């Protein structure tokens, strides 16, 4: 700190110092000619030397060591303009070395400084309570460091000019983790994320987004799948990217299989069998991509506690992909669940649902057979009986029966007709906030012994009469 050549000086004891000059040695008070500085402390050879306090007219001050007129050594400085206070080492009037800076806006820094700036290793706590331990350069986080953010997330890795850049690991409060490359504070480059939902993605990231992420669910197989009444089938499902490739970089997405049956409201005099659904069930039709709506229909499961259709049991050895049994004599389907609203997790973008089987009509679904024109329909050539479809319809208000119809006995298995299988993304919480669209597959259940041409089951009119 430069000394003024003229000014007023007072000492604790009489001195021989010339009037208007700073004290020569010992302890004294000196007010500089510009009246902006006032020093009180030790002197040596006419210079501030030792312990002293320098006050500024704007309210700032420094108190600590002086060497040959300069602020050097240990001390404390307060800046009135910013409200910041620094305690620590000084060199030639600037904070340099190790010290603690307390900020008026909140927070503090403890560590190394150079020319008044954070430089080297230190710990910074900001006004929001976020904490950083690590390297600094030019007052910015730079190099290796660890930071705990306000929301509890924690990052450890490389920094470049206050940005996460290079290699690092992020641990989120929800349990998700990311380890890999960063650029400008976001995931960029090769990296792996283990999401709290159970999804794991390993691959390239661009601007915080996975480059090879799945965007759709695809059920493999023909456009319309045919299955025999009472039998089971296996579905192979892929998670695909926009370009149609399998999203092999992704594991653990949770998918759920469900079913629906075609929903149609038919006139009272119809020649087609359908279900009358009780008004109290409140079924909401689901729009399908096949040009019709469906309502939910149960899938049968050996482990769900419901009755297993006899035909399904008889054909289990032929239709099931599992071994026929084990040394204990139990069927294989009792050891591996089928599809009770079943869920599977994807592995390398693929899922397989085995032993998928439609269950019997649930309570409230009443099969109705129209007798009007039944003989004429039965006498038509094959293929002209409405394609063998069995749509769903609601009965009239109040549950009254339609004229000329008879209610069928409860079925032990699904009737032949048109159904829909649906695969939903039920990953919770959604991976990166995005849920994949539901996939649909058109399923036709063929009557037993009908070959590839499904038909609607009809009862003998004489028996009904």
Please characterize this protein's 3D structure.
This protein has four helices and 33 strands. By secondary structure, the chain is mainly beta. The strands form four sheets. The protein has a 19-stranded antiparallel beta sheet that branches. β11 (131-137) and β12 form a beta hairpin. The radius of gyration is 41 Å and the shape is rod-shaped. The N and C termini lie far apart (117 Å). The model is unreliable at 1-12, 269-273, 302-340, 370-408 and 452-465 (pLDDT under 50).
Work out the radius of gyration: 41 Å
Strand content: over 45%
Briefly note the structural class of the backbone: mainly beta
How would you sum up the major sheet?
Answer: 19 strands, antiparallel
Helix content: under 10%
From the N-terminal CA to the C-terminal CA, the straight-line distance is 117 Å
Number of helices: 4
User: What spatial form do the alpha-carbon principal axes imply?
Assistant: rod-shaped
Low-pLDDT runs of 5+ residues are: 1-12, 269-273, 302-340, 370-408, 452-465
How many beta strands in the DSSP annotation? 33
**Integer average pLDDT:** 79
Record the SSE blueprint.
Blueprint: E1 8-11, E2 26-31, E3 37-44, E4 47-56, E5 61-67, E6 70-78, E7 85-91, E8 94-102, E9 108-114, E10 117-125, E11 131-137, E12 140-148, E13 154-160, E14 163-171, E15 177-183, E16 186-194, E17 200-206, E18 209-210, E19 216-219, E20 224-228, E21 233-240, E22 250-251, E23 254-263, E24 274-277, E25 286-287, E26 293-297, H1 310-314, H2 316-319, E27 343-345, E28 350-356, E29 365-370, H3 374-379, E30 392-394, E31 405-407, E32 417-425, E33 439-446, H4 461-464
Parallel strand pairs: 20-33, 24-30
Antiparallel strand pairs: 1-2, 2-3, 3-4, 4-5, 5-6, 6-7, 7-8, 8-9, 9-10, 10-11, 11-12, 12-13, 13-14, 14-15, 15-16, 16-17, 17-18, 17-22, 19-21, 21-28, 23-26, 23-27, 23-32, 24-29, 25-26, 29-31, 32-33
